[in-house]
Design goal:
CATH class of the largest domain: Mainly Alpha
Structural class: mainly alpha
Largest sheet: 2 strands, antiparallel
Number of domains: 2
Bound molecules: heme C
Helix content: 40-55%
Number of helices: 10
CATH superfamily of the largest domain: Cytochrome c-like domain
Distance between the termini: 72 Å
Strand content: 5-15%
Length: 243
């Protein structure tokens, strides 16, 4: 029995240590927290536009039907077709991509994963911090490295917007922060806003039904509120003559 208990403690202590050191390594990545609000339609619309412009060349959203997207985000279908449809697609189709897997492996050494469910499986903060923790690294094939996904084979797509940065390490080679090398097209705040919009959009995509549940929830609460008022005055009316 005692041996069992001590074995349990040894396993507990080693695993919690492992978890701790992994957390420490990613302390810098975890400083980047997305500000998610799937009810913010303007942010979702911007996020959809940025995603189509900057990400959809490589990443599919194979569970996202474009007609659902247009409807949920309140974008007119004609406007959507003009601005957000690519590769001669029709609005009833899902957001797949044209790139062949064999080409992707040749170009990037990896197949860009479908991002439909990434916000749910890995979290919004992971996506946001991936987009915010690129830095120059001559030893890597892309010329860049990333704190949230070390040695990522995804190129630094948004470098022109964010600007070039170097990493600052402490004496134990842990990442502490970034040093700006050159300015990008956007200010620091604008870049955070843009990457937050993309993240917000991917959170919506990972569970489109949530947006609908929210709007139903609103009307249920409104109904209860109005009903409570009516019930209160009805009760007052009924009991008026009793006292
Ligand atoms: C030129 C192709 C390309 C473009 C454009 C691109 N990516 Fe990627 N992305 C990749 C590849 C390749 C990987 C796989 C990286 C790896 O596993 O090392 C990846 C990985 C990712 C991951 C990690 C997924 C996971 O499961 O860990 C996220 C998140 C991501 N990309 C988001 C984006 C977003 C958001 C954009 C648009 C701003 C974008 N990507 C644009 C090629 C691309």
């Amino acid at each position: 029995m005692i041996r069992k208990i001590s074995l349990f403690f040894i396993i507990f202590i080693t695993t919690s240590n492992l978890a701790n050191s992994a957390a420490q390594k990613n302390e810098l990545a975890s400083k980047y927290e997305a500000n998610i609000s799937i009810n913010n339609k303007a942010s979702l619309q911007r996020g959809a536009k940025y995603f189509v412009n900057y990400c959809s060349g490589c990443h599919s959203l194979k569970y996202m039907r474009m007609s659902t997207l247009a409807e949920d985000l309140g974008i007119d279908e004609a406007l959507f077709s003009q601005n957000l449809l690519f590769n001669n697609k029709k609005i009833g189709e899902t957001m797949t991509i044209a790139m062949k897997e064999s080409d992707a492996i040749e170009w990037f050494n990896a197949v860009p994963p479908d991002l439909s469910l990434t916000a749910r499986s890995k979290g919004a903060n992971y996506i946001y911090s991936k987009l915010n923790t690129y830095y120059q690294d001559d030893s890597s094939a892309t010329g860049y490295n990333n704190v949230a996904l070390p040695n990522s084979s995804m190129p630094n797509i948004l470098a022109g917007l964010q600007g070039e940065r170097k990493i600052i390490l402490d004496s134990k080679e842990n990442p502490l922060g970034f040093e700006k090398v050159s300015n990008g097209a956007l200010s620091e705040i604008e870049y955070k806003q843009l990457t937050n919009d993309i993240t917000n959009f991917l959170v919506y995509v990972s569970e489109p039904a949530k947006l609908r549940r929210y709007s139903i929830g609103f009307w249920v609460l409104m109904f209860l509120f109005v009903f409570t008022i009516i019930a209160y005055y009805t009760k007052k009316e009924f009991w008026k003559d009793v006292h």
